[in-house]
Design brief:
The protein is of the alpha/beta class. It has a domain of 267 residues: Rossmann fold. It has 19 helices and 15 strands. The strands form 4 sheets. It has a 7-stranded mixed beta sheet, sandwiched between helices. Helix 6 packs parallel to helix 8 and helix 9 packs antiparallel against helix 10. It is globular, with a radius of gyration of 20 Å. It binds pyridoxal-5'-phosphate. The site of pyridoxal-5'-phosphate (PLP) has 21 residues, from helix 6, helix 13 and helix 17.
């Protein structure tokens, strides 16, 4: 019997194309609307923030888009990432299930985020951009873009959610090491930041506010700066499909095919990156894998949010999209998985969820850390708190398989390591973490501020 743990590909197995699910979407996309006029956005409007190559990718319906050589050269630093079988975890759970995970924490930034940061920096560079702005929650995205901007010699301004800026000084230092300028958001550098601080000087910040600041900084720079987003948009999810394309080949090496594919969801990019190439196999090839997106109880946009049009950011400067949302000015409870504290979700994931192609579950913070601890002690890797949500769901699947006496093949995305998240682990071990229930009243208040959009039925 094979006892192989690690399924490795060679450098020349790095995918040469990204997979664009728009080509195979079983449901038509809803229009993206201008935040002021509420009319469909034009490329000119988007071009203030993004280079044209990325705008074209955003709306493309080509099934495969070629990965530029310059991007592949940098992917080679850490791709292909390994696929591992969690044999020790299986044993600890006494389950007949086979548990596989794709490990994206081997990138220099420590997560899947460089998969899109690198091409975004590249397309900006070739269109003449000199400087980028972005936001970051826990710091994973900011570190990834700082890494990419360093390679392409671009300046970078990062608006980091204030609570994380203070909780995670090492993430800030990492971004600075790569050459980025990092600010604690809300700042007094933007009109929106000053307005927020004026109303509430101790505001701890949120992803929605930090996005607004980064968008404003780019939009008011008279063309000197562009903006970059680490999740939610079609082109971002598409860049992440290198994860699933590799995993398809690696599952082949393992001689198995997953029954269920699991990923945590903040804006949806690591989940989509793993899931969409397998979903293509369901749609085009008759495979029957199930897909499970995992979110925190504290920000359950898929499982408890409303599927409607909403702004992408708190200040209502980013486009309006149709998504499952908790309301653009909802400030989520301060869970440690900062990267999952977003009010909305990628429109393509929402459309697929609404049409029944994906399932979603929400999990509490304490059970998530309990799963992360069990994983660390059986497999050795200390997971990012975000990725720990996927571990929780994978363990629950494995327990369910044990209870039903079923052999089940489980594949999940371990989207990042948690080596900079020790304070969160310490709080868990010191019994200082708490569960946050669904914040009914805060969501209700935020939902009253949705844009009023009239769409033909
Ligand atoms: C390690 C990790 N996983 C997951 C996420 C959630 O983002 P997404 O849903 O876009 O993958 C983040 C976001 O910062 C992250 O840092």
């Amino acid at each position: 019997m094979s006892t192989q743990n690690r399924y490795q590909l060679n450098e020349n197995d790095i995918p040469k194309f990204w997979y664009n699910i728009n080509a195979d979407m079983p449901v038509p996309p809803a229009p993206v609307l201008h935040p002021q006029t509420m009319e469909p956005v034009t490329p000119d409007f988007l071009n203030v923030l993004f280079p044209m190559d990325l705008i074209l990718q955003e709306v493309s319906t080509e099934r495969y888009i070629q990965i530029p050589e310059e991007v592949l050269e940098i992917y080679k630093i850490y791709r292909p990432t390994p696929l591992l079988r969690a044999r020790r975890l299986e044993k600890a759970l006494d389950t007949p299930a086979h548990i596989y995970y794709k490990y994206e924490g081997v990138s220099p930034a420590g997560s899947h985020k460089p998969n899109t940061a690198i091409p975004q920096a590249f397309y900006n560079k070739i269109s003449g951009t000199k400087s980028l702005t972005t936001e970051t929650g826990a710091g994973q995205w900011g570190s990834a873009l700082a890494l990419a901007c360093n390679f392409f010699d671009l300046d970078l301004e990062v608006y980091m959610v204030k609570v994380s800026y203070h909780q995670k000084p090492y993430r800030r230092i990492m971004m600075e090491t790569y050459g980025a300028q990092v600010y604690a958001s809300p700042t007094d550098l933007t009109n929106y930041g000053r307005a927020v601080l004026g109303a509430y000087p101790d505001n701890p910040g949120s992803l929605g506010i930090a996005i607004s600041e980064a968008v404003e900084a780019a939009a008011t720079s008279e063309g000197k700066k562009k903006y970059s987003l680490g999740s939610v948009l079609n082109h971002v999810l598409m860049h992440q499909t290198v994860i699933g394309e590799e995993a398809l080949k690696q599952m082949d090496l393992a001689g198995e095919y997953p029954d269920v594919i699991i990923g945590c969801v903040g804006g949806g990019s690591n989940f989509a990156g793993l899931a969409y190439p397998f979903l293509r196999q369901n749609i085009l090839d008759g495979q029957r894998a199930r897909f499970v997106a995992v979110e925190p109880n504290a920000t359950p946009s898929l499982t408890r949010g409303t599927y409607t049009f909403d702004y992408g950011d708190t200040a209502r400067m980013a486009p309006i999209v149709k998504m499952h949302t908790l309301g653009h000015d909802f400030v989520p409870p301060p869970i440690h998985a900062g990267g999952l504290r977003y009010h909305g979700m990628a429109p393509s994931i929402c459309a697929l969820y609404d049409a029944g192609y994906l399932k979603a579950v929400s999990v509490p913070q304490l059970a998530t850390f309990q799963a992360a601890m069990q994983f660390a002690r059986s497999e050795g890797i200390i997971a990012a708190p975000e990725s720990a949500h996927a571990i929780r769901a994978a363990i629950d699947e494995a327990i369910d398989a044990r209870e039903k006496g079923e052999k089940r093949v489980i594949l999940f995305n371990l989207s990042g390591h948690g080596n900079f998240d020790m304070a969160a682990y310490q709080a868990y071990m010191g019994n200082q973490l708490e569960d946050y229930e669904y914040p009914v009243e805060a969501v209700k208040a935020a939902m009253e501020k949705l844009p009023k959009i009239e769409m033909p039925a």
